Amino acid sequence: xxxxxxxxxxxxxxxxxxxxxxxxxxxxxxxxxxxxxxxxxxxxxxxxxxxxxxxxxxxxxxxxxxxxxxxxxxxxxxxxxxxxxxxxxxxxxxxxxxxxxxxxxxxxxxxxxxxxxxxxxx
Length: 122
What we know:
The chain has helices at residues 28-41, 53-62, 83-90; strands spanning 9-10, 16-17, 46-49, 72-79, 96-103, 111-116. The protein contains three helices and six strands, in the order ββαβαβαββ. Helix 1 (28-41) packs across helix 2.
């Protein structure tokens, strides 16, 4: 399995992309490293992963929660249109912060991408 298969891809939301970002290619160590970096930037008491892509990342982040912190971290692997993140955020009571591993487009102010695709890739 490769992280960036070189073939066109149709996203869950029907967006045609020049290639797929295959986050299943990340090893556990890769996700632990990313989770550690996120926990250094944000304090959070709960984590909610967007099914399916965000669930594995959320499992690593849950190990780094801060007891008593009010913020809920909403996470996903790839941000294409933002619909999945907005739907998950609507289900969260209270303050939430979003983190995605990759974003194809600019994200709303509450979502922080670890990696941002440049406009030239679309």
